[in-house]
Write a structure and sequence with these properties.
The chain contains 3 helices and 2 strands; from the N terminus they run H-H-E-E-H. By secondary structure, it is mainly α.
């Protein structure tokens, strides 16, 4: 995680575009300070039994009026956890 933070700092420090923009602001008579906030999350991936990264679900229900039909989506265990956290259930018959 520290290495990622260092890489982000270096890329910002070495950016000619950022340096040029800050230079223009300073030439216009302003002091510049730059504060960036990044949220980086890590989750250990769960290995599925068959080695597949996710499960493909085919949605056979007709789309609502004014919406286009979606064919297949691939859900990982993290997708399932996220949907459950939002209290969104996946139709078991679609599996």
């Amino acid at each position: 995680m520290q290495e990622l933070g260092n890489a982000i700092n270096e890329s910002l420090s070495d950016s000619d575009r950022i340096a040029a923009a800050i230079g223009e602001i300073k030439r216009a008579g302003y002091d510049v300070f730059l504060v960036l906030e990044a949220t980086i999350g890590f989750n250990k991936r769960e290995e599925s039994e068959d080695g597949d990264e996710g499960e493909t679900i085919e949605l056979d229900t007709p789309p609502e009026p004014g919406r286009r039909k979606i064919g297949k989506i691939k859900l990982t265990s993290q997708d399932h956890k996220f949907l459950r956290a939002l209290k969104i259930a996946i139709d078991e018959e679609s599996r």
